[in-house]
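Consider the following input, taken from an annotated entry for ABC transporter substrate-binding protein (Streptomyces lutosisoli).
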Amino acid sequence: MRPQSRRAPRALYAAAAVGTLITPLLAGCSGAGGSGGSSAHSINVLMVNNPQMVELQKLTADNFTKDTGIKVNFTVLPENDVRDKISQDFANQAGQYDVATLSNYEIPIYAKNGWLQPLDSYVAKDTAFDQGDILKPMTQALTAADGKLYGEPFYGESSFLMYRKDIFKKAGLTMPAKPSWQKVADLAAKVDGAESGMKGICLRGLPGWGEVLAPLTTVVNTFGGTWFDKDWKAQLDSAEFKKATHFYVDLVRKHGESGAPQSGFAECLNDMTQSKTAMWYDATSGAGSLEASGSPVKGKIGYVPAPVEKTASSGWLYTWAWGVQKASKNADDSWKFISWASSKGYEKLVGEKAGWANVPAGKRTSTYDIPQYRTEAAAFADVTRDAIDSAKPNDPGVQPRPAPGIQFVDIPEFTDLGTKVSQEISSAIAGQESVDSALKKSQQLAEAVAKKYEGS
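Applying the prediction step yields:
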């Protein structure tokens, strides 16, 4: 549900870059709940163990299987483990799993390497699925360079700014409808200490390409920077990249949460829930927890778009989506499962069975017209949808990019590069080195990666 631990296995992605196939460590073993093979009326699905996926698992037998006769054997694993297992099976085209949960980071890479089934023909025939109802940025993010669609979203998210309305009102402050980062910094200074133990803002500082670099890269984009220019020249020592990073590090050091170098999504969510911070910039998926029944801050939070400087929008884009392995012998049945799991009908089923707050939203336009959902998610639904609608994965900054991605660069090497750079940034947040020193080292790392692509 959140992008804080998106650490794909480095060796396998590096192999993907050169088209090398890896022999899976678990070849010949059946997955948990799987059979190691499939019949005409059985498919094997490998998916991440977040709550919405677990809910899907509970609802499948009595609904999808009952209606279609197709049995679904689920293997459900933690995020890092599932990424490892998926890459092993798909890279080798072992065919042990028919369907897997993949993000908009992996899908273009997997598609380029020929590991996925294109879904266009299924979409064309399955008019009830209504591809036109899928939010356009999601469709775009799951479409590969060859123009074909390789994934369907289960749910999606962007990023936005969350703030305590009651604290701002008490301090006589007004949050702009579309704030700039400079304005946010000014407000953070004014609400820092508004209550005992309360800091101005929470920003991730935890190392990880999906941790601190997720929000920081959106700041870099809107400040005019980029990881690489259109010719693959590394830009981490550019004036714009430096300005954005100095801004981010200075803001979190001056007015950010305690223990910032160890703070990721989970820590900032806890700080916001426990009134330890007055603002928080992060994933739109965090709002559901803040507004959940029993949350001590329910009804006290305001939500506005991701702050900007030089761009019209700056929110990131992420989705857990379904992909079908190219080697699957059950592609037709796999599509039937995907069509059900990402359908309008499934959202209605979840709303009725598990509550509308649990609906896997952020992927369909029609979701935001459901009265029950709008009531449950009134505080943040429209801002979330607008953030996703305005996301531009192919054009997130002020200059052309050589690869898609808003909070990441969609190349196999980014898992390793991003992790190493994040460690330098986190070190700067901790005061162990200067921002300039961190970026000097990071530039060298980026230049080494760029050499593989220059002239391509």
